Amino acid sequence: MALKTRYSTFNLECGTDEAGRGCLAGPVTAAAVILPTSFKYLLLNDSKQLSEKKRAVLKPLIESECISFGVQHIYESEIDSINILNASIKAMQASISQLNPIPEYIIVDGNQFKPYESTPYTTIVKGDGKYLSIAAASVLAKTYRDAYMAKIHEEFPMYNWKQNKGYPTKEHRAAIQKYGITKYHRKSFRLLPDQYKLEI
User: Fold this and answer.
1) Binding site residues for a divalent metal cation, as ranges?
2) Could you give the domains of the chain?
3) Which residue from 45, 129, 161, 186 puts its CA 20 to 30 A from 52's CA?
């Protein structure tokens, strides 16, 4: 099913999405994208449906053909202090604030958002599989976050973030149990299931 170009009647409609919400380590990263109405890439879909290779191909295409884009990381300490939902919304709003021109309408992946200035918005559950601009934002959020995780992987290779990107894989949890936590871990998250005890 081809993704739709617009939800509203406005030309300057931006889509926004985040990546890394369910991770145990690293930032939550959001992107916002305004695409021209002529933008057509059949390959573009929700980033979770795309291979890393396809996302790498799409990233420069989106960046060169979009009207504007913004990307924002919100880091662990802030996630711990304001909670992951607020951090995700803050990251999306910060990515929208980087857009030039200013969007006339915002479509948000998911079901929760807070008003951004006086711009009208709509939340769309599974929007990244329905609208091109949200799908484009999901690709940028994911590729920028993955690049960041690959960078901090060099500092702490034993957690294998290059591979698991900070998600709660068995391997990641086993490494937390063995080595404890780093400054990149989210202290407010349940880093280990109940059967493990974590010494902090």
Assistant:
1) 17-18, 109
2) 13-149 (3.30.420.10)
3) 186
Identify the band that residue 135 occupies on the pLDDT scale cut at 50, 70 and 90. very high
Which residues contact residue 193 at a Cβ distance below 8 angstroms, ignoring those fewer than 6 apart? 173
Binding-site annotation: residue ranges = 17-18, 109
Residue 88 and residue 104 in contact, taking contact as beta carbons nearer than 8 Å: no
pLDDT tens-digit readout, 79-93 = 999 999 999 999 999
120 in Cβ contact with 107 (< 8 Å): no
Q: What angle do CA 60, 136, 31 make, to 5 degrees?
A: 95
Q: Alpha carbon of 58 to those of 12, 76, 98, 141, 155: distances in Å?
A: 21, 28, 21, 12, 28
**For the whole model, what pTM was predicted?**
0.94
Condensed to tens digits (0 to 9), the pLDDT of residues 180-199 reads: 999 999 999 888 775 455 55
Which residues contact residue 155 at a Cβ distance below 8 angstroms, ignoring those fewer than 6 apart? 182
Amino acid present at 46 = D
Written as six digits, the tokens of 140 are 């940028």
Helix (H) or strand (E) holding 107: strand 105-109
| H or E, element range at 77 | helix 76-82
Q: Quick check: helix, strand or coil at residue 17?
A: strand
